[in-house]
Amino acid sequence: MRVARGRSGRTLALTAVAALGLTLAACGSGGDVGAGSGENALPGVDQYLNAPCPEVGTKPAASAKSFTYWSMWTADEPQGKVLQKAFKCFTDKTGVKVDVQWLGRKAYTQNLVPALNTDDVPDLFDQDVSKVGAAIMTPGGTQSVDDVFGMKVGEGDKTVKDVLAPSSYDFPQNKDKSGHNFMVPYTLQSSAWWYNKDQVKDFAQPKTTADLIGLFDKAKASGKAAISQDGDIPFYNMYFFTQLAERYVGAGGLNKAASDKTGQSWTADPGFLKAAQETAKLPKYFIDGWDAAKFPQIQQRWADGDSDYLYVGSWAPSETREYLDKQGSGTKISYGSFQFPMPDGATHDTVEQMSIGFAVTKKAKNADAAKSFIAYFLNKDLLSGIPAVADNLVPRTDLAVPDDLKQLKTVMDDPKKEHVLQYDGIDAIAGGNWQTDVFDPADLALLKGQLTPQQFVAQLAAKSADFWKNQG
Predict the structure, then answer these.
(1) pLDDT tens digits for 253-297?
(2) What three-state secondary structure class fits 40?
(3) Residue 410 lies in a domain
(4) What's the pLDDT score for residue 32?
(5) Is-contact 284 291, C-beta < 8 A?
(6) pLDDT at residue 28 in the model
(7) Residue 429, SS3 per DSSP
(8) Residue 66 near residue 43, CB atoms below 8 Å
(9) 298-303 own/partner pairs: CB under 8 Å, 24+ apart
């Protein structure tokens, strides 16, 4: 599941070796073998963890002794192991100690939000940009990190701005009330249709929604379910309508409609109805029990070959591979992925992404040191641990990519694509309450056939108006 909601991109147990001591199959390749070859090949896990520390490009003030960091990871997760190496390197190179608390995914709500009105806040924390914006930035809990983008990363004169893809940070949802960036990304997530190349024979990339339906009909004709769908996860149910709607209304369109206090945007723009009509075609292809099982049962059924297709985030390979490894059957998946094709009449060729990164609290006592570490972590030699150890994507375009994610990363790096924040950020509106109170009930009813597409958009309009009226 999306890491911000409770799971890591890779949760395999790590065994201690050497200084940080880990052995783990890197990128699904096994042992200490990196992905690909050549200058930008991913290092193996042991190779990464035992590599020399790069130099710090922007050193903190000489008076800096330490800074505090509240992490969305746990220490034994792959991301936690990568960060631990970075902390050790930073301390070795600068003398500045990192006081870290490994708090997990709910740290921003259970720990940080309650602490905002006190002086007991960390200097640095991390989370996905939607969560930071909704829960921490909106009440004034962050400070600008614009200065970080000019800091050197320890690769000659290269700065943070030089090495990051602009689309990973330069978007409206990463701006505070004064227009300043409040987060610097170090991980990217996206989503896709996934299939096993060894199971789906003669696959042809769908160019239209009719082609997509053709793939599903072919799956059903072969006696398999077409789509595995974990219907007990609301934001998994969100994918279908939001992906299709974004192609009609473009980046910001969903967010604007959800923020419309009158609710009338939902019925005024015909793109929403068209997206709902396309969405309504999909549930008949869902696997039996999709709305009754508990995660990850349905996802595991896809991994077992009970269905041909799965729509979920870029963590799909690592999660399903972990499941199969635990089964001990030796089953392997040759992962293929593709995006929703453009529906009829749509004009926005979009691709979604979610940035996960670092933010600095407004009350940070050691902001200078924290910001220096942010720039350091984006050094190529350190950041390569995110794909190599954690099988995740990064916002640098010059690092190698885990094999299973190469198709998806190619789409994300396509300059012709219109980048959209995942779900267009509607999951963060009103602290996430708009989604849970307005969108989720209507969306689930649409998928279950309890609402027609027309009734669906009408309900969004009416319930959204009621929601905002009650907000005062």
Answers:
(1) 999 999 999 999 999 999 999 999 999 999 999 999 999 999 999
(2) coil
(3) no
(4) 40
(5) no
(6) 33
(7) helix
(8) no
(9) 298/228, 298/229, 298/230, 298/231, 299/228, 299/230, 299/323, 301/228, 302/194, 302/228, 303/331, 303/333
- Predicted local confidence at residue 40, as pLDDT: 53
Q: How far apart are the first and last CA of the chain?
A: 34
Q: What is the CATH number of the domain that holds 18?
A: 3.40.190.10
pTM: 0.87
Q: Which two tokens stand for residue 50?
A: 């035992």
Do residues 55 and 198 share a domain?
no
∠190-194-200 over CA atoms, to 5°?
Answer: 160
Q: Which residues have a Cβ under 8 Å from the Cβ of 188 and sit 6 or more positions away?
A: 168, 314, 353, 354, 355, 356, 392, 393, 394, 395, 412
Residue type, 127: Q
- pLDDT, one tens digit per residue, over 174-204 is 999 999 999 999 999 999 999 999 999 999 9
Amino acid letter, residue 272: F
Q: What is the length of the chain?
A: 472
Q: Where would I find the beta strands (DSSP E) of 235-344?
A: 307-313, 335-338
Closest listed residue to residue 335, CA positions, set 35, 6, 15 = 35
Whole-number pLDDT of residue 273: 98
Taken in order 64, 68, 71, 77, the sign of the CA dihedral is: positive
Residue at 124 is within a domain = yes
Whether the Cβ atoms of residue 133 and residue 174 lie closer than 8 Å to each other: yes
Total structural domains within the chain: 2
- Residue ranges, the chain, pLDDT below 50: 2-38
How far apart are the C-alpha atoms of 151 and 162, rounded to whole Å? 10
Burial bucket for residue 345 (CB in 10 Å: 0-12, 13-18, 19+): exposed
Strand 307-313 relative to strand 335-338: parallel, antiparallel, unpaired? unpaired
Same domain, 101 and 175: yes
DSSP-derived pairing of the beta strands 225-228 and 307-313: parallel
- For 111-192, where are the alpha helices, taking DSSP H only? 113-115, 129-131, 160-163
How far apart are alpha carbons 165 and 361 in whole angstroms?
Answer: 24
Please give the pLDDT value at position 44.
84
Q: Residue 439 in 3-state DSSP? A: helix
Helix, strand and coil percent figures for the chain, each rounded to 5: 45, 15, 40
Residue 411 covered by a domain: no
Dihedral sign (CA 460, 456, 252, 228): positive
Return the number of other C-beta atoms located less than 10 Å from residue 295's C-beta.
15
pLDDT for residue 353: 95
Domain encompassing residue 426: 191-349+422-471
